[in-house]
Batch of 2 targets.
Target 1
Amino acid sequence: MHAFSYVKARTLKEATDTLLAHSEAKLLAGGMTLIPTLKARLAQPTHLIDIGGIEALKGISLKAGQLTIGAATRHVEVANSPVVKRAIPALAYLASQIGDPQVRNRGTMGGSLANNDPAADYPSAALSLNATIVTNRREIVADDFFQGLFTTALDSDEIITAVRWPVVGKSAYEKFPHPASGYAMAGAFVAHNTKGTRVAITGAGPGVFRWMEAEQALGKKMNAKALEALQLEAADLNEDMHGTKEYRANLAKVMTKRAVAKLSGK
Amino acid sequence: MAKVELTINGKNHCFEVEDRTLLVNLIRDHAQLTGTHVGCDTSQCGACTVHMNGEAIKSCTVFALQANGAQITTIEGLAKNGKLHPVQQAFTQCHALQCGFCTPGMIMSVAGLLKNNPKPTDEQIYHGLEGNLCRCTGYVNIVKAVKKSAELLATQKQSR
């Protein structure tokens, strides 16, 4: 690992100031992706700004149909929170399936969203529910936030402070985890309310995306059978030693069907 | 270089470390507690699992400076007054190890799992040990040992 200076930020202002002062600084929250990246020498920041201990970035609250979760809230806290379990059970379930227990004890929601790994779990929930990503400067809806492989709408000196999740209707998440890493080979988050149905697919493509044809089919009939005739376009999907494009397209369909079955009880 | 103050197995320590020093290297090289192992060094195998403020974490994927002020428990801190911890007893009785390399991390994960869920089902045990790899046992005896641990811990609780 290359050398760097570690800076412990006590407040959001301290973090922002340090970030502005050093163009090659990086934010460290749980570090579950960043530390392995540094070990592999895939990044060489001059400074690591630890925002994991900032109290203002932590916590879970439910007000007026909005579930607000601080960016530095760890996966284990989301998975075990009675508030999340009641408000959006699929989100608590998703958090309980990330990585492994040790990773869930450290990794944070803000870190996962900011990194936007194409096989991460949280982006699918955020896109499906169209959550609002709150930063130190503005609010970004999920529709505008995710911009492909490890890319988001965040500016280099912007910090996610919280995520607001709309609590409406029903939702479900199903993934086929890679047997070693736990990352989604394909995962589907399906959300359904009076406004319509949104299906977000993770793991299969270069970034999380909505499967519009499935949304239309489910809008007519909220039943896994409605997806039977559909085929997810494989051309733009990921292909690697773990699976071909076609394999992933089929897997994404199977996961969507399972999520729909879970959501609709049939 | 920076100073880190932390508690390991109930004992206060203060070390001067490089900013990039990993917690596992502080534990092994600075505190000289070599029961915590480095297996893959890529956050996969769990051999480096210790408890930080009561929760199982992979010490190869935490910087020593992030543990400033933390309470760390390693495998060396489990036995009390020369008596093995119930999870250690169970691993011995159930023959839940062969080469033993993964065992310190495995035991720390099991202790963490049972703290949150004193009576896990088989499925919950599999899910709870997803962060630890064992290349010898095939996990059958490890799962037996988790159940045995749960029994021993329950008995210990009752007899208190």
Note: The interface with chain B takes residues 1-6, 8, 28, 31-32, 35-36, 38-39, 48, 50, 52, 76, 99-103, 105-106, 180-182 of chain A (CB under 8 Å).
Target 2
Amino acid sequence: MKKRTLRFHPCGNYKERYDDELTIFESDFGRFWALVGLIILFAVVPYVVSPYLLYVINMIGIAAIAAIGLNILIGYTGQISLGHGAFFGVGAYAAAILATTVNAPFLLAVPAAGIITALVGMIFGIPSGRLKGLYLTIATLAGQFIIEYILIHWESLTKGTMGITLPTADIVGFPISGDKSFFFVIFIALCLMTWIAINLVRTKFGRAFIAIRDNDRAAEGMGIPIFRYKLLSFGISSFYAGFAGAIWAFYMISVTAEPFNLTLSVEYIAMVIIGGLGNIAGSIYGAVFITALTEVLRWLTDYLMNSGAFATSGFNLNLAPLREFVFGLAIVVFILFEPRGLAEIWRIVRSSFRLWPFSY
Amino acid sequence: MDFFVQLLINGISVGFLYGLSAMGFVMIFKSSSVLNFAHGELLAMGAFLFLALVTWAQLPILPAFLITLAGCFVLGFVVERLFLRPLIGEPLIFVIMLTVGLASMFKGILLLIFGGNLNTYPDFLPSFLGIQRGMINIPPVYTATLIIGLTFLAVFGLFFKYSSQGIYMRSVADNQKAALSLGVHVKLVFALSWAIAALVAGMSGIVLGIINGINVHDLSAIGLKVFPVVILGGLDSIGGAIIGGIIIGLLETFTGGYLSPSLRDVVPYIVLVFILLVKPYGLFGLKEIERV
């Protein structure tokens, strides 16, 4: 047996077996930096950043979990969902209802909320079985509105516009509240979900999803039961949304139906596209990009309003429409100029450094 | 009974408006099979352009109307040229996502310029258009809508049936490759269908604005309500869009009138899911759907 040596960047394609193609880290260099990144994330970040920044980072983490789920659906299976925001809301409400009515503990409520959301999602995924392509998009658009309506109007269950207040989350007796303890919960969950997603797309299921995305007729011809796999992909994607929503509910303490509108769904789509379709790490970049963009825009509008540049002209600069515009612009620009997203840009940057000084 | 008749009339007129709004959508889908999620924003663009011309520039109604239509035509052309043209041949996902992005871009621009408040046009419709008979009251707007709508329907019907450009458009809708090989300028057809669709959308936007007042959020919500309408009528049938619109309109007003006003806005989507499950090609759609 060949002695295992440390592997650095190969100067060519030396893959001999299919296992080599499937490997997550091509070199030990990448594995090393991933480990360093994780250590910095858990041992340094929560102790040095300001509370507000920690809150933003937590929001990024939650968004990243949901975005990974959407990427499995859009990027790997090629089905578009416009209802991801609503499914996120279903998860949040499911966790809130479980925690208040049956006193479900945090560790049970979050996955249970994910499973409930997956079931709800699969109901709206059924039309995709009969028809291909854009029909699922339309069905999920309908799902978005129907779920929003149910969340507001099923008052006996969701308390309508009043919203639900959750009890403090605790894990086997240890209460978790505040940004710092939630940081650990959120990012351990994110690492776990990323790990599951990366490995999922390497299995038979992931390959079936990719086959459906690339050519559904050929996939059917190869004996992949398309309807079942589409529904499974939809269920998994909704599970991620519900899981993230449940953590969000515990973190925010109170839940109302307002945030889970179509804008949120579009925001998730923007994350997936900007991050890179069919790239798990890309969804995380996308979540960082979109959340950071919101913060930058907030800072910018505050700055411009306070500096008085617009106060005299009577021009009222508002965050919400500006945000809407910039999101749309970002989606359009990325689709037109870099449809494979930030992940591709990152790969290009990396490889040009690797080949330095002979990059071209 | 009077309540019923009034609901019936309201339903038909609201539905006719939906149908009118859906017409542009169907036109784009028919020729380039793009699901346009920015349709509501195209409606809003027309409505706000007209508003700006009438109230800010103080133009008389007729020139303002014509300039708006011309502006929408150009807008549709530019949108196709700048955003959709580079994506010809790309996967459908990107095209759909692009229209989602465009929608939120347009919405952002309109909100930045006009704000989210409700605006209204000055009253300019002659009052003889209104019909008042017994308890039944039809305001002049609805009559005007009907006239405008029927005119446009007739004009486009004739355009598609007899003009050479209309025939080209139908041929591209039918089979892109065959049309290309017979010498049809497919790209021009795409550009033209976007331009015409934007024109129709702008016109519907103005009519909607006269009836409901002009508000970015409401108009873009109507752009999404186009989906139940076109799925019901059949994605590629212009006449189906009108009939689907009327059915959805009736359904909405009757639910609002007899069941509960809050259910009114969701009913179209519940119907939509139901249709997708039972009769996905709609009432008048082409039944060549791949079941994969």
Note: Chain B touches chain A through 45 residues (CB under 8 Å).
